[in-house]
Amino acid sequence: MPPAERKKPSRKWAIALAVLVHLIFAVVLIFGIDWQTKEASPVMAELWSSVSAPATKPVPKPEPAPRLEPKPQPKPVPKPEPKPKPEPKLEQPKPVKADIELKDKEKEKEKEKEKKRKEEEKEKKKAEAEKKLKEQALKVQHAMLEAEQVALDKQREAAEAARQQAATQAASQRLMNDAISRISSHIRRFVVMPPDVVGNPQAEFDVFLIPTGEVLNVKLSRSSGNPAYDTAVERAIRKASPLPLPTDPSLIGRFRELKLKFRPNE
């Protein structure tokens, strides 16, 4: 049977098979890029040239088939290039346990140094304070020693002065006693002893003199118990004027008033 007499359904099947073959071929090409180690197997397609129609029915004149534009074959999908892996950020290495311990030890050392420095400063201040206290104590002790020395010197001077004064007084007293003894002896030469004197009674007189030794007044301060003897002694004092005074000027002032004692048997 001539080609013009083919049935319409058979042509459609042929076109469908052709499209299918092209699609299969395109798929094989696409996957063949990735699977280069495998060769694509050929695809067999069988085309029917004619289909017998029943003889009883007249075959209508086939209408011209619409011209089919060949479908564009799909372009092979390019294999995506592998994206470069981002370089990992370099993280600073975390301190290991040994580094941490080392830092802790360094901190402890720093703390110990600071503590030691503070203790040294404290000890230094304490030593300076003790030194100042010792210096002050030494100054006070030195001042006390000086005061004691001054007091001792004063005591020594006072004792020396007292000794000298005592010695002077003793010497003066000796001179006084000697002078009084001479005066008393001088007066006794003028005493006229009464006949009725019994024993050795003592009569005391206060005698007032002038610097030249002359007697101004005579006063009986204590009687001997024998009025005749008391009168005889008073008369003798007045007759003995002027009395022999010492020649030392320092003693003249002490002979303004004399206490004289007389006994019959002297």
Structure characterization notes:
GO terms for molecular function: toxin transmembrane transporter activity. This is Protein TolA. With 266 residues, this protein is mainly alpha-helical. It has two domains: 1-52 and 60-79, no CATH class; 101-266, Fusion Protein Consisting Of Minor Coat Protein, Glycine Rich Linker, Tola, And A His Tag, Chain: A, Domain 2 (2-Layer Sandwich), CATH 3.30.1150. Helices cover 51% and strands 8% of the residues. It is built from four helices and three strands, in the order ααββααβ. The chain has helices spanning 8-34, 97-188, 227-239, 249-252; strands at residues 203-209, 215-222, 257-262. A three-stranded antiparallel β-sheet has the order 2-1-3, covered by helices on one side.
CATH topology (level 3) name of the largest domain: Fusion Protein Consisting Of Minor Coat Protein, Glycine Rich Linker, Tola, And A His Tag, Chain: A, Domain 2
| Low-pLDDT residue intervals, each spanning 5 or more residues | 1-7, 47-55
Q: Report on the biggest sheet.
A: 3 strands, antiparallel
**CATH architectural arrangement of the largest domain:** 2-Layer Sandwich
